[in-house]
Amino acid sequence: MVNLENIKIYQTNGINYDVTTEDIIVKLLDWDQKFGITISNVSYDTLTVYFHNLPNNVRIMAEEIYEFCPDIIDQGYGCMDEILTMGQKIDERLKPLLQGVEMNSPDFGLQILENVLKVKKKVCLWWD
């Protein structure tokens, strides 16, 4: 069973999205039951979730994560097009995460999140 002690200590929340500490605990327990998880880097508005297993349909999982934590795309992966159009050199570590992503697609951020899950089997959640 996943250790939720730090979530309770920090009262981790996404209150700007009406996500309470209890909501986070419920979601993590659900993910732990379905996939097995480990958490780290816990603070009052952020945490990292490592998935031991992934579902067959990672896209559905990515959509669930986005619904639970919109900042992951709205302020994260969904901004990758800006970096690329500014002509910045792509870090070699990012290339696997961009593989097969259609940057002109309105859901490219979700495609990147899906790749992150497949490649790294982890996700950093934050509520800003």
TrEMBL record:
It comes from the Bacteria. InterPro entries: DUF4253 (IPR025349). Residues 7-128 form the DUF4253 domain. This is DUF4253 domain-containing protein.
